[in-house]
Amino acid sequence: MFTGLVETVGTLRQLNRGSDSCRLTVDGDFPVEELTLGESISVNGICLTLVDFAAGFFIADLSPETLRRSTFEHLGHGTRLNLERALRVGDRLGGHIVTGHIDGRGRVTRIERAANSFFFRIDAAPELLRYIVPKGSVAVDGISLTVNEVDSTGFSLAIIPHTLERTNLHTLRVGDLVNLETDILGKYVARLLGGPVPESGKSRIDLEFLANNGYL
């Protein structure tokens, strides 16, 4: 479990892909004496298991599912990566509850300077947008951010300079892909109230459903 508050920004050193495996090597400045094999680290919003480490770097394995859903297959040597170690009991939850299990990818379509912040527009698929609400939370490359507005094709964010400087957001350009994790609480509520929206786009929640479940 993570908070979406990035601790440090690392660098992709190597991505080794085999016929049935993929291994990621990341340069980062986590204290070696605090790391343990098997612990979880959020790398650009994806919860990965640490399988090896030494001073200045760590290694994690990627599953085919992770490659399919994430931006990793598009990243190259030297790419900057947001890093966060798992939440400890008793820590302040300054962001929101982030699992590190991303839902899919979005694409940056606008970046503009706006007064003392930066405006980002990210387009995403409808099945992701249904869980994103204005003034709600979303994790973008593992960063806990507040949504400004949402429409049928995407959502907007206002990024303060501190967040821009302390994460990899300042390296993003229009057209870049990002990892998205929507609010876990919203997903559970939607599931309990009728499951995912069918391909027709029509919600399963109607007056009959509400009456049958004691809401009317």
Describe this structure as you would to a colleague.
This protein has 216 residues and is mainly beta. The chain has 5 helices and 12 strands. It has helices spanning 64-69, 126-129, 161-166, 184-192, 207-212; strands spanning 8-17, 22-27, 40-43, 46-54, 57-62, 80-85, 104-114, 117-123, 137-140, 143-150, 154-159, 177-182. A 6-stranded antiparallel beta barrel has the order 1-2-5-4-3-6. The protein has a 6-stranded antiparallel β-barrel with strand order 7-8-11-10-9-12. Strand 10 and strand 11 form a beta hairpin. The two termini are 37 Å apart. The model is unreliable at 197-201 (pLDDT under 50).
Major beta sheet, strand line-up? 1-2-5-4-3-6
Distance between the termini: 37 Å
Number of helices: 5
Give the H and E element order. EEEEEHEEEHEEEHEHH
- CA-based shape: globular
Q: What structural class is derived from the secondary structure elements?
A: mainly beta
β-strand amount: 35-45%
Number of strands: 12
Rg, Cα atoms, Å: 18 Å
Name the average pLDDT.
Answer: 90
Helical residue percent? 10-25%
Uncertain residue segments: 197-201
The major pleated sheet works out as:
6 strands, antiparallel, barrel
List its traits.
single chain, 216 residues, 6-stranded antiparallel barrel, 12 strands
Which helices and strands occur, and which strands form pairs?
Blueprint (H helix, E strand, L loop, with lengths): L7 E10 L4 E6 L12 E4 L2 E9 L2 E6 L1 H6 L10 E6 L18 E11 L2 E7 L2 H4 L7 E4 L2 E8 L3 E6 L1 H6 L10 E6 L1 H9 L14 H6 L4
Antiparallel strand pairs: 1-2, 1-6, 2-5, 3-4, 3-6, 4-5, 7-8, 7-12, 8-11, 9-10, 9-12, 10-11
